[in-house]
Structure formats: C-alpha cells, structure tokens
Backbone:
C-alpha cells in the first residue's frame, strides 16, 4: 500500500495532535463566518493491537467526534491518524475504502443504525456486497455464521429490523460491523441505549468476540462501571482535550487528575459502610462552551483542587501539557501530585 | 443460563417485505373510506384498460337522429348534440384522463426525485442552486404556464401533460429533499459510508428507499389533482381536441346546453368528482396505514 509512512511505533492506531472543529457559516454565495467550535482540540493517543481502550468524558467532550474522525465521518482540521503505518487523514476516497474495511464502527442508537427497509440478512451482507467478497451463496453462508457468532438465529435474516429488540439490533449491527473481518472496532456507547440486563449480555458478547476474532476496541462511554470492567486503558477527555491516560486499574485506584477524581467520586461503592462515608465531589457550574474555551487550564473554572489550593494563577495562565507522571500514566494538570494525596477531594488534615 | 443466545424467531411472526405489502392492503380494506377509494380506483383502472370493450356504443360516430336525448334505457347518461352516447364517451375518456395524469406525475417524479436527492445529499452550493431553481419553477402558476406552452407548441393532450409535468416536479423535489435531510445523518447511512458504500448506493438504496412512503402517499393524493388539472386544460381548449372524448372537453362542449340539457355537463362532471375523490381517499388511507406501519 502506498501512502505517507510514519515512523514505525508498533501501535495499531496512532492519533497525533488531532483537531476537529465545526464552523457554522451563514449566507448564500458570500458566506459569513459565525462561530467555530473546537470539538477535538489537539489530542494524541495510541492503540496497541488487541487492547481495549476506553474514551470517557461528559457529553460534548469530543469523544464521539474523535471516533467519527477515525472512520472519516469527520474531516480533521489538522493532525494525523495513522493506522498500521498508513496515514488516514487526507486519503483519497478510493484508498480510504480499502483501509476503512479494517476499521468499523458500532453506533449508539440501535434503532437508527439499521436500514428499516432492508432485511437483516441484506444489512449484514451489505459490507460483502460493497467490497465484492464472495458469491451470493458464500455471502448467505457468511451471514449465517455472523448471526450465529453474535447469538442470533440464522433464520432471522429474512426479517426486518423493527421486529427486533434494542439488544438484538445491536447484535445485528455488530454482525454487520464484523462482516469484513475488521481489526479495529469503534464502539460508540453501544450499550447506553439498552436496559442494564441487556447491557451485560452485549458486554459479555463484546468480550467473547474480542477473544474469538482478536479484535481491538476503541470503546467510547460515559459509564465508568463499564469502563472499569471492560477497559485495559482509559483516556479521560474534557472539552476536547485529554486530561488523563492510564491503565484501567491505575486510573481507578490512583486517579491523578482532579477531574478524574471528581468523576470517580460519583461512582457508588458496593460496600455500604464505605458508601455511607463516601464524599462526593460535585463539580460546580457548566462545562464551558467549546466555541469559547477558557485560557489556561480549561478545567480550572470548575476545579475543586484549584479552589482548595487558593486559586493559583498558573492554572489560568498556562495550559498544562499531558505529561508522564508514572509508568504509562499521563496527566494534564499542574498539580497532579496534589490530587493524588487528597483522595476524593478530602484534605486528610481536615478529618 | 446462556445469556448470549436468543430464542429462535416465531415463524408465523416473521415480517418480510412481501408480508408488508399484504398487510398494507389489509389495512386499506379495513378502513371503510380507504376501501371505497381503493375499489373506485381499481374500477377506474379496469374501465380504462377495457374501455373499448366496456363502452356500449361508438363514442365518436355521429347519430344526429338521437341528439340530446335525456338519460334512459338506451343511453344511461343521455346523448350529446351529435347524438353520441355520453356514457360511452365518459368510459373511453377514462383512459385518456388516467394515462394523462399518470404521465404528469411520472414527469414530476422523474425530474423531481433525483433533484431532491442530489440537493439534499450533496448540500452546500449544489443544494442552494437546485433549490433556487426549484423555487423559480414553483412560482409559475401551472395553468398559465400550460397556456403558454399550448400557445407555442399548439394545443394537444401531449403538450398539456408535458406543460403540467414540468411545473409539477418542484413539489417532489422539496418532499424528497426534506426526507434526505432527515435521513442522511441517521446511523445506518453513516454506517454505510464507513463500509465504503458509494454515493449512488447510499442515495438510492438507503435514503430513497426509506423516503418512498411519503412519496407514494403524495403521488396518490396528487393523482386526483392531476386528473382535475388535465380536465381543466381540456375545458379551456388547451388539452384534448374534439372529437376526442375527454371529460374536460365534454364539459366544455356541453356548456351551451347546461340550462336545458342538464345531463350533458353533469355526468362528465360527476365522473371527475368521483375520480378525484377516489384518489384522495386512497391517498389518505395509504398515509394512515403506512405511517402506522412505520411507528411500530
């Protein structure tokens, strides 16, 4: 394959300095610029073959946009996305097709992710038809295998999507995404529209499928319980930026960014005595608009640690870089050390 | 318990595209109004297809001896000033009216649907340009435009159909564009893009296929108006020319007799009324049945 070769890093997917922004313009012929929203603002991370990386953050933090940029549904303003050594940003449509068959996406809403007029079989076979894989007979057989792999009966292929429940539709969407034997699946909150019991089934299925097909997942979620259970590594985003990257266990035991600490403090603890004493950090105020990002640390205005430390000026003047503070643990905070010694926002000296 | 397996589908409950069509027809028949509409439309179509066989008498041959007879056993709808059987003329005129209306709608759909699809899907300046052109066509009063066409190309049913079709398409372009805008950010369309589907595949297989319901409803509702428009043009002398039997042309010829020979204009007029009503009832029924099916 031709294309711009980047330095070999061994990563399956490397996102570097990715910026995605949305401009709104108005007017016919002469377009006036109205505003620019930086949905993703200079983020970098890597995915190793076979790992599950979770992208977490509040709504509007840019996690979904990041996923969409990787599958070329959004056009980045700058930065690079390298998949197996091949630069994806700026690829022509033709070449991009050849690559994108290795990267597939499963969407959040199972009710809009299947064409309501296409039978399940036709939906699952469509990737094969588009890429001209196999004869019609081969395809029928492959559809049967795929439906079986996601726990559906092959007879379902004659039915239309409206006859299936949300969980079943998400299985169909998975079968469709798996049809071309992709290496990377981008899962955009695949369970958030489902009942808790169905969520568990789908998560188990995802774990099984990863084993079976040696897949790599980029799992986008706001549900920390799922992230803890599923993820190998976690990327915490806030307002288009990465705040913290750490292996899942590290992150949940020793969060180093005050934002992560606040997020984790919202997680209920199964032990009732601990749960009773647990202090929650309630973040004040609203997330600032991505059209008007504050100078300095973008989290400072809502940061409990910043207030506790007496509002140091540094936070409002300089944007903290994402830097390595422990093994595989990256944090973007000037006072990450302080967050660690004040677990869950409590100053030990006060108690 | 194995949580990842799902019980087999109940075969009787399986919904396939074929069963959908059957259930649509079933829904139409269950509602009395749309059942009337559907049966009248079927009746009109049958009459149109078998017009020469169904018509009791020659619709064109002159018979001055029996001119302007009131309705009776031999002439159910009476006769006109040339002694021709009005019932036979109405029956034979059905074919022309339905074919003409179908032609108008076909021109409208063939021009309007691709323009609406392209405008909605491509967006940006292509959308702007196409929709401004659409607005220009929309601002023509269709009758006035048809008069202008008839004036330049000469009055004939074919020219009337073309003239009407050419001002009819903007409605379909707008309808389809609206549907495209609604559908193009749905996950299944974006999913197809990720799979590498081409624009044509996405536009026709994913978007148009899901816009067919409102289009079918609109076309069936418009069919009645197309019949009416064509009759109006013929009435004004811009469509079918005598002695061709056509509903509007018959009313036009009967104008001078309507005070004394009421049946001359009444029966062609009633036929137009019933035809327009039948298509409207069918369209309304379709809308109800199809939107119900959608909400499931």
Residues:
């Amino acid at each position: 394959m031709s294309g711009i070769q980047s330095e070999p890093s061994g990563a399956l997917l490397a996102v570097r300095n990715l910026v995605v922004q949305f401009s709104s313009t108005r007017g016919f012929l002469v377009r006036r610029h109205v505003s620019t929203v930086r949905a993703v603002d200079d983020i970098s991370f890597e995915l190793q073959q076979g790992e599950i990386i979770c992208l977490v953050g509040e709504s509007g933090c840019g996690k979904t946009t990041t996923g969409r940029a990787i599958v070329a549904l959004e056009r980045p303003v700058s930065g690079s996305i390298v998949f197996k050594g091949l630069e994806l940003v700026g690829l022509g449509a033709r070449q991009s097709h050849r690559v994108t068959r290795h990267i597939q996406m499963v969407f959040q809403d199972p009710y809009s992710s299947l064409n309501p007029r296409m039978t399940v079989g036709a939906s699952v076979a469509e990737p094969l038809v588009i890429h001209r894989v196999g004869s019609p007979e081969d395809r029928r057989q492959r559809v049967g295998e795929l439906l079986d792999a996601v726990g559906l009966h092959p007879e379902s292929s004659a039915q239309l999507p409206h006859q299936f429940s949300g969980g079943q539709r998400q299985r169909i969407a998975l079968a469709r995404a798996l049809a071309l034997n992709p290496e990377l699946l981008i899962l955009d909150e695949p369970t958030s529209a489902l009942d808790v019991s169905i969520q568990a089934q789908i998560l188990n299925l995802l774990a099984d499928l990863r084993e079976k097909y040696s897949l790599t997942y980029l799992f986008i979620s706001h549900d920390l319980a799922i992230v803890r259970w599923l993820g190998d590594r976690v990327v915490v985003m806030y307002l288009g930026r990465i705040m913290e990257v750490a292996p899942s266990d590290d992150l949940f035991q020793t969060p180093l960014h005050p934002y992560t600490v606040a997020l984790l403090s919202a997680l209920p603890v199964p032990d009732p005595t601990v749960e009773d004493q647990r202090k929650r950090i309630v973040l004040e105020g609203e997330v600032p608009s991505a059209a008007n990002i504050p100078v300095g640390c973008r989290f400072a205005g809502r940061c409990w640690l910043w207030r506790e430390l007496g509002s140091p000026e540094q936070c409002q003047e300089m944007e903290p870089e994402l830097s390595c503070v422990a093994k595989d643990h990256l944090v973007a905070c000037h006072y990450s050390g302080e967050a660690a010694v004040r677990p869950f926002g409590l100053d030990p000296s006060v108690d | 318990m194995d949580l990842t397996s799902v019980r087999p589908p109940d075969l009787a409950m399986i919904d396939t595209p074929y069963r959908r069509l059957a259930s649509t027809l079933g829904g139409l028949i269950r509602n009395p109004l749309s059942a009337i509409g559907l049966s009248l439309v079927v009746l009109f179509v049958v009459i149109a297809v078998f017009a020469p066989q169904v018509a009791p008498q020659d619709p064109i041959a002159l018979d001055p001896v029996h001119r302007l007879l009131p309705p009776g056993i031999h002439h159910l709808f009476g006769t006109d000033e040339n002694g021709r059987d009005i019932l036979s003329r109405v029956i034979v005129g059905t074919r022309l009216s339905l074919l003409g209306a179908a032609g108008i709608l076909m021109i409208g759909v063939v021009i309007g649907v691709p323009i609406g699809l392209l405008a909605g899907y491509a967006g940006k300046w292509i959308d702007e340009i196409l929709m401004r052109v659409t607005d220009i066509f929309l601002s023509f009063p269709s009758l006035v435009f048809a008069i202008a066409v008839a004036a330049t190309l000469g009055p004939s049913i074919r020219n009337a159909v073309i003239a009407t079709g050419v001002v009819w398409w903007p409605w379909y372009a707008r309808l389809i564009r609206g549907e495209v805008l609604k559908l193009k950010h749905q996950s299944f369309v974006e999913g197809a893009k990720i799979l590498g589907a081409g624009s044509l595949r996405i536009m026709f297989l994913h978007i148009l296929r899901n816009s067919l319901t409102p289009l079918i409803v609109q076309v069936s509702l418009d069919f009645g108006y197309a019949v009416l428009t064509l009759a109006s043009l013929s009435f004004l002398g811009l469509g079918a020319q005598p002695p061709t039997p056509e509903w509007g042309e018959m009313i036009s010829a009967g104008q001078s007799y309507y005070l004394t020979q009421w049946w001359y204009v009444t029966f062609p007029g009633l036929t137009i009324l019933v035809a327009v009503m039948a298509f409207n009832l069918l369209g309304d029924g379709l809308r109800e049945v199809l939107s119900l099916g959608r909400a499931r």
About this structure: Chain A has a mean pLDDT of 83.
